[in-house]
Model the fold of this input.
Amino acid sequence: MLIDSYGRTIEYLRISVTDRCNFKCIYCQSQRPWKQLPPKEILSFEEIEEIVKVSSQLGVKRIRLTGGEPLLRKNIEILVEKLAKIPGIEDLSLTTNGFFLEEKALILKKVGLKRINISLDTLEREKFKKITGKDELNRILRGIEVALEVGFNPVKINVVVIRGFNHEEIIDLAKLTLEKPLEVRFIEFMPLGKNSLWNESKVFYVTEIRKILESFKKLEPVFSVGGGPAKSYKWKGSLGKIGLISPISEHICRYCNRMRITADGKLRPCLFHDFEIDLKAILRKRKGSLREAFKLALKMKPEKGEQNSTIKPMKLIGG
Ligand code: SAM
Ligand code: SF4
Done:
């Protein structure tokens, strides 16, 4: 079992399969320009499989594939199929902007993907364009429908709430849960990658979100699959759920159960700390051991992340 110096059991790995993205979400950009990784620097499917095998022997039970945009990675379903077969991996999920879901949802479900999270910050076409740089709102909405149709359960919708951008849509976005088995999760805007838009006044806090949601209808606490930092609720009578994630206003670090692997194979114990261990070097030079690397990462995992301390945006770390 992977238990860190503060008694937290680490059983969850988030793996970035690419640093590429076809969107330019305003909250996910860095002031500092980053060069795309050369393809040979990105972990191969076989390398990811080897890392997951070792981590599962150490006690990791849950894997999430992310990016960049993970569905941009060619033949991602082959990786999903490989990981789904690894003994000990009980939960395999993916976070996507939804752009390729219409064509990929069915095959991903067939090869063993269990759960899916889709980013959607607005229901207004113009605002969607402003936030992501793409005029593709309808395509993403169709992708969400297809994910439900092929049987993903739950389908979670991630909303980063930014004051003055989309906070006025909180009720409309949450209303998606009234008639569909979706879990709409509102996330406080985090200061990652020295984002030029971020300042404290742009953070719309979970307490405020909750008040707005309660002004529509009282929230009831419920259990949500997947653990993690989200607190889940529902409006009475609705099919879906509402999640609230408060990385800024609460110390969610004490519940942290995860580590991350960047697209170029760095094991990162904390989202808000740029300490990383180079797993790719271990794999390619056959020097050192993955097991020892995980143990070192565990030792180095800080009690608390320091917001504003990372210079990398979410898409490079693997959100
Ligand atoms: N491209 C995929 C997507 O957008 O779902 C996966 C990668 S994206 C980096 C993963 C998640 O990180 C998304 O749900 C996105 O909303 C979230 N994210 C990115 N930057 C963020 C920030 N500054 N604060 C809060 N969440 C952020
Ligand atoms: Fe791309 Fe996801 Fe970042 Fe948006 S949040 S820019 S879709 S990686």
